[in-house]
User: What shape does this take?
Amino acid sequence: MKIGVVTFPGSNGDTDCVHALESVPGCEPQLIWHKSTDLGGSDALILPGGFAHGDYLRAGAIARFSPVMREVERFAREGRPVLGICNGFQVLTEAGLLPGALLRNQHILFRCAWVHVRVTSSRSPWLSAVPEGTVLRIAVAHGQGNYFADEDTLRELRERAQIALRYCDPDGRITPDSNHNGSVLNIAGVTNREGNVLGMMPHPERSSDPLLGSEDGRAVFASLASTMVRA
Amino acid sequence: MSVSTEELREVALTADEYDQVVRLLGREPNRLELGIVGAMWSEHCGYKNSRPLLRSFPTEGPEVLQGPGENAGAVRLSSGLAAVFKVESHNHPSAIEPYQGAATGVGGIVRDVFTMGARPFALLDSLRFGPFEERESRHLLNGVVRGIGDYGNSIGIPTVGGETWFAPCYRGNPLVNAMCVGIAPADGLIRGHAGEPGNIVLLVGSDTGRDGIHGATFASVEDPQESHKGVIQVGNPFMEKLLMEACLELRGNPHVVGMQDCGAAGLTSSSVECAGRAGSGIELDVSKVSRRERGMTPYEVMLSESQERMLLVVRPEGVDEVRGVFEKWDLHSDVVGRVTGDGVLRVRDGGEVVGELPIHLLTEDVPAYTRQGVPDPGLLARRDRDLGELVESADVAPQDALLTLLSSPNVCDKRWVWEQYDHTIGTSTVMQPGMADAAVMRIRPTGEGLALSMDCNSRYCLLDPYAGGMGAVVEAARNLACVGARPLGLTNCLNFGNPEKPGVYWQLSECIRGMADACRALGVPVVSGNVSLYNESGGEAIYPTPVVGMVGELPDAGEAVGLAFRDGDEVYLLSTGAEPSLGASEWLAVIAGEEAGTPPRPDLEAETRLHRALWALAREGVLSSAHDLSEGGLGVSLAECCIAGEVGLDASGYEGASDPTALFGEAHGRAVIGVRPEHVQRVAEVARDAQLRLERLGTARGDRLVLGTTMDLPVEGLAAAYHGRLHVSLTE
Assistant: This one.
């Protein structure tokens, strides 16, 4: 299965995604340059972390105009799997493929740390093999990851089980203390209505190797691999 | 002489030096030429005060691929890859504008590494400020940390280690030393070389503006607040990222002859250095340089320090191909000149020649000063002071002293700093800040480990610069040994005051002598470095601060040893037998409020045995943890191991730590190790064979640190003291 990882100028998590995917049986990663309009026959797409186009104006605001994004949008609207990680999540919200927005962290500072998230919906192909309620130990590294959506959107997200990941304590409790960036409802990841597009602030690709502190993030790539095999 | 004192001060040349220029040139230089000479003869570029002293460093070894004199040094790893690294200061710019000063410091050192054809792989920072209690210090800390974070995080290079120190001497003159480490194929290093006459000179990256003119010369005078206004550069990490990717794409391209970062003194130093190494000449046309401002003079173009620019030397037939790679990354490139055979730097402005200087004058004829150093009698008296009375009068219970030390700014947890740095990007960080004595990175695809450390105890250097210089090298090596790594090479950043003062010159020469002796004894070559002199504020010099950055290797990154105790471990003190003392200690500074006494002097032979034993134990997998004893001595080290492991230590039977000297005294050559019970026998054998002292302290268990009858504290309380201190409000 081919998984396209999009490289924008300023992307810096692209090769980390490639390395993580290479360790998952059945995944064949390929890099896609942002000026390309050919997705190379990809079966799924990842928009990686980084500072696409320097994050000038607003995180993700310029990246949505990269030539590749029209193809990404088409791909997503066809119901095929798209994952946005960190800056990739910001790009997907700017492009209107995911609801809500990502604001500056409540405490203002960039923060790199290990946190816990609870899987609250397994609807997306990226989490299909992870039972709801599972707690993942996972890396975060961002300055603008404070998820925000208005009341109506939040109601809809809840009704349609689009809230995929929430910050929690190591025992899975959703507490104010574990909400490290001030996100509404401790939201760390959401899907679109259909569930095929997932955006998440934490980095599963940095959490896929026990030598580096956690391999809980592999579940994201492994879920996709098993879904695609079934399909 | 047709030049005013004003003009000479502007280019930081003395009247004698000016006369020398006239003699060498056979005529008076014009203003452009004078500016170029001033930059190239500055301490920053020309090392005129430090060069004779630096010669004493050992710079060769079987693993050295590139010693000092290039953009960065390089050593060969067992796998055949090269580790490329260097440290550089950005002290004066950070004093004026902490955010941009620190950010551009990171940008500069990263360019030094990718210029060599290495992919930057890790950053470390050694930072020093005035007292943490003072608002101005916190303001600078805040700006510097955000500057480093924003720049390093944007370009996707993890910041994995370093140190943060506070002392009154850094008031008004903070130190910001950034170190970058990159990985390259050993046979693929790119040099800053001009090659054959006829080669084409390309300037790529940002447009050139008026920012940073005279940065190199002003780095070489005192009082940053007064001298540096208007010369601060502004960083653009996005441009740097593009430049880095484009340059790395050109690795192995047969048309690329050389690359040189435009750092201090911009186009001037980059072109002169390339030509100097090739023994060639170089001709530049400033009218071809893209600018971001109108009306710039040749002088301004030649001396601009606009960031994120690179000089490339390319064979004529490959110019289009090389420019095509920059275009892919939306970078423009200008053909600004060509390499010549006449040994002259010729600057044109279109058709007109506006300056001509022999390259030799700029690179080889730089004056070198050997001065007479004299120790300051006041400092000698402070060193020799009898501490007995002072120690007696500091009547603080050991438990209270430990909690006070753990929450003191130099000892406490620096999480507030390193959480603002992305340290997990690159998926290679095996030992992140706080986990071990050195950062450990895993190298793909071989799986070997690279251990990195930055160290200097400037209080030791103040009170005994020879011992302090040795100590900086030894401690860096011991930190590597504690994670199980063998050192391959070091880089240093020599931060001192005004070398024209005999007391400062003595500190500089003694520190270098100590460092060189330690390097030779431990077999660690110096492969790169940077000198930052004139670090003074209001006439007062900083403490001598020779920061050492060391790089070591582990055959397997998975073997790296952390510092956290594990429940059930047997805990030992493994040492050379060195006896601790309170001279120049953290305890004396924090508890007794005095910086005095004789700092510890390492026994280099015994230290080597200790490091070898630690490597062997790590390799055999018999160490659960290892932690060097440094500031705060045994008490602080044990507390740190407990806090990191979230486990107590039952050393209730240990009676060896009842007085302040035993508990908080400092010495080199000591480490606390944790060992599973089944490995104790083996550890004892290794220690005996290496003639080291192995002293049992107790067992890691429970949730309290219990030391004989002097100490019984909950780990939770220790952690609260350790973690609670260092936070800075954003409004500061």
Observations:
- Chain B touches chain A through 33 residues (CB under 8 Å).
- Chain B is about 35% helix and 25% strand.
- Residues 252 and 409 of chain B are 47 Å apart (CA to CA).
- The two ends of chain B are 49 Å apart (CA to CA).
